Amino acid sequence: xxxxxxxxxxxxxxxxxxxxxxxxxxxxxxxxxxxxxxxxxxxxxxxxxxxxxxxxxxxxxxxxxxxxxxxxxxxxxxxxxxxxxxxxxxxxxx
Length: 94
Fold this sequence. Notes:
3-stranded antiparallel β-sheet; C2_dom; Synaptotagmin-7-like; C2_domain_sf
């Protein structure tokens, strides 16, 4: 995300038949070091019948982002705490 604008999108594989799926996948985005100050990464979890059910954002305000910037090109591997989305905050534009 660049501010509120979506600039790229990647999708994991689908996990069926699991109430606790694990996604151990890596993605690469081509972003300049200068632009890293103005972008963030929004992670969402969706279920086929319910749509989007959780979201997490990381960006310059997070420890993971600072670690990634301090130790390039080493990946900053972390678990992300997803926040449950209530019906009032679900948005198809996310």
